[in-house]
Amino acid sequence: MKVIISIVLFHVLPMVTFGQVIFHIQSDKDSVQIGEPIEVSIELSYPASIGEVIWPDFREDSTIGSNYEIWSVQEIEKENSVNENETRLLISQKLTVATFQSGYIPFSPIQAVLDQDTVESNAFLITVSSVEIDTSKAFIDIKPVFEDPLSRWESFSIWLSNHWWWIAVIVAAIAIGLFFIFKKKNITSEPEAVISLYDKYTSAYKQILSKSLWEKQQVKEHYHELTGLIRSYYFDRFDVSTFEKTTNEIIAITRTIDIPHELKENLIQVFSVSEFVKYAKQIPSIYEIEKHNRIAGELIEITQIKEELIPEES
Fold it and tell me: Which of the four pLDDT bands, split at 50, 70 and 90, describes residue 307?
């Protein structure tokens, strides 16, 4: 008798109304089997004069209504309606839930907050039946086991007749690849051209001078190329790392390399002036620029090793 009364109360009162607020929840099924998905619709209707609304935060793999697992959560939908008396707002959301309890399983009310007032939805019952399993019977095979009526050779012949063109393409690709591999081995490679360190940097030095960037009001670019040449020469000639070194670090390296003292001081002056030019703090005269050009050339001339050859860059 209590169960019948509970069912009547849960289904005769399908929604809960607080004043002008209607908080309603319903399912698409009244009875399901255990673990069967249930679609639940939640709707909250309230006057537009209500300000803040805190909607429940439904998340997958959490629980709802005390006894149900949430499997999926759809987006929240909002709409409004206007009649002669008032403007109302409607918030709705759909969930997919399931329960693994059997019997008359209640879906407890859920809560929302409207302007700091808590409202509850209606509750309802769902009849959940368990799946009856006859354990007295033996397991039955779903399908019998069939033997392949074709022999291996017959199966291969059928497969080959359907895919022969793939094999032909693969064989052709392998043949072409082998042809070019053996052809490449038979080609006599030309000896790599070599150039001395002196000739390499003399050529680069002359290219910098031929640009005459300082005469085109490109003093900063000229000093960048000139000091870059000296940095690179330090690395190749004296085997010292100049990669990503500051100007002060390059000056310190200059003091340690084995070159005449006067040349050291002149190179230090080149780097110092280059730093001023870099930050537009000083623009040297034509005389000073040409002097610094000659200092770079003297470095290459004085420290040359004519016997050493290096691969020529292409």
Answer: low
CA distance 141 to 120: 51
Tell me the average pLDDT across 205-229.
89
Residue 147 has pLDDT above 50, yes or no: yes
Q: Which residue has the tokens 């085109």?
A: 216
State the number of CA atoms in the 13 A half-sphere of 117 facing the CB: 9
The 10s digit of each residue's pLDDT in 251-297 is 888 888 888 999 889 888 888 888 888 887 778 888 988 999 899 88
Domain ranges, ordered by start, for the chain = 2-129, 195-311
Q: Which overall architecture, per CATH, does domain 2-129 show?
A: Sandwich (2.60)
| pTM, to two decimals | 0.40
How far is residue 167 from each of residues 160, 161, 163, 171, measured CA to CA in Å?
9, 11, 7, 6
User: What's the confidence (pLDDT) of residue 47?
Assistant: 87
Banded pLDDT at 313 (limits 50, 70, 90): low
CA-closest candidate to residue 265, choices 255, 275, 256, 273: 255
SS (H, E, C) the chain: CHHHHHHHHHHHCCEEEECCEEEEEEECCCEEECCCCEEEEEEEEEECCCCCEECCCCCCCCEECCCEEEEEECCCEEEEEECCCCEEEEEEEEEEEECCCCEEEEECCCEEEECCEEEECCCEEEEEECCCCCCCCCCCCCCCCCCCCCCHHHHHHHHHHHHHHHHHHHHHHHHHHHHHHHHHHHCCCCCCCEEEHHHHHHHHHHHHHHHCHHHHCCHHHHHHHHHHHHHHHHHHHHCCCCCCCCHHHHHHHHHHCCCCHHHHHHHHHHHHHHHHHHCCCCCCCHHHHHHHHHHHHHHHHHCCCCCCEEECCC
Q: What's the CA gap between 265 and 272, in Å, rounded?
A: 10
